[in-house]
Write the structure tokens for this entry.
Amino acid sequence: MKLVVAVDKNWGIGNKGELLARVRADLRNFQSLTKGNVVILGSKTLATFPNGKVLKDRTNLVLSRNTDYNPEGAIMVRSLDELFCELKKYDDDSVYVIGGANVYDQLLPYCDTAYVTKFDKGFECDAFFENLDESNAWELVSIGEEQKTNPETDTEPDMSFYFCEYKRIDK
Ligand SMILES: NC(=O)c1ccc[n+]([C@@H]2O[C@H](COP(=O)([O-])OP(=O)(O)OC[C@H]3O[C@@H](n4cnc5c(N)ncnc54)[C@H](OP(=O)(O)O)[C@@H]3O)[C@@H](O)[C@H]2O)c1
């Protein structure tokens, strides 16, 4: 399986339950990777989506231990065992882990590709992703051209960012 994440300069990914920045080009990149595919997310990340609704045009596998929590359109999984049982139904290449911090931590060992948007800025963060640049298990295989935020559509008016791809090397 693969993962998609947006990190700041210190591999921070969120603060107070929210994303660090809303950047339209990054959202488009996220959509093009995940549309038509399977996404895995934690209940706290789902809560950050507009009206707490699942992503359309995707199969949403939502992790929560709370059996009373059954958001419309989600396939609920209550443990990693249940998740891996459910995942047998799908092609591994079509499965994307989309957060948050807690879910990335647990599923990173099962991922072979990481699509990482790197924001060229340090934000105040309370949620972090493992620093893949310092990991022996991962290597950076591609880094896209410098992108710039658009002040008309993005929460950060003047920030560079890069679309990067990492591959697992300790298979
Ligand atoms: N930058 C990015 O790309 C990105 C992407 C996504 C999220 N984020 C950020 O990440 C932060 C949220 O991360 P988070 O770590 O607080 O929450 P999270 O990973 O989204 O969700 C954690 C929740 O998932 C459920 N869960 C986790 N492991 C489970 C397991 N093995 N079995 C059953 N349920 C399990 C639990 O839900 P219950 O409590 O319901 O049992 C747990 O409280 C936010 O700031 C968000 O904006 C950033």
